[in-house]
Amino acid sequence: QVQLVESGGGLVQAGGSLSLSCAASGSFFSINRMGWYRQAPGKQRELVATITRGANTNYADSVKGRFTVSRDNTKNLVYLQMNSLKPEDTAVYYCNAVGVIRATDAAMNFWGKGTLVTVSS
After folding, report:
1. CA dist 53 → 76, 87, 94 (Å)
2. Which of 9, 21, 65, 66 satisfies CB 3.0 to 4.6 Å to 115 for a cystine?
3. How confident is the model at residue 115 (pLDDT cuts 50, 70, 90)?
């Protein structure tokens, strides 16, 4: 199976920066897409940014121009560089991967346990 472990969350002042990392490990055929989602208290989990093996990226409108997602395919790592942070960015950030365990299987979603990012005003 696939295990995802996030790191890098913490407390930062508004306008500051923070970097998140996620490592995927386990037995799998391939991981096509990796990325980040977040969930603030009382709100739905929402997409932040995703990236495919071919480096195609997708960002939520609220983070465009401020966040950058990148990936190391050889190590199955995904990163999220967050700049110009705002209090509304406060949330638990979850690493996500879409992959195939075996070549004959359908793609599946995998999730990390999350890391808390708190932006103070």
Report:
1. 10, 31, 19
2. 9
3. very high
**55-86 tens-digit pLDDT:** 999 999 999 999 999 999 888 899 999 999 99
> What string of H, E and C letters represents the secondary structure of the chain?
CEEEEEECCEEEECCCCEEEEEEEEECCCEEEEEEEEEECCCCCCEEEEEEECCCCEEECCCCCCCEEEEEECCCCEEEEEECCCCHHHCEEEEEEEEEECCCCCCCEEEECCCEEEEEEC
pLDDT at 1: 79
Distance of alpha carbon 13 from the chain centroid: 21
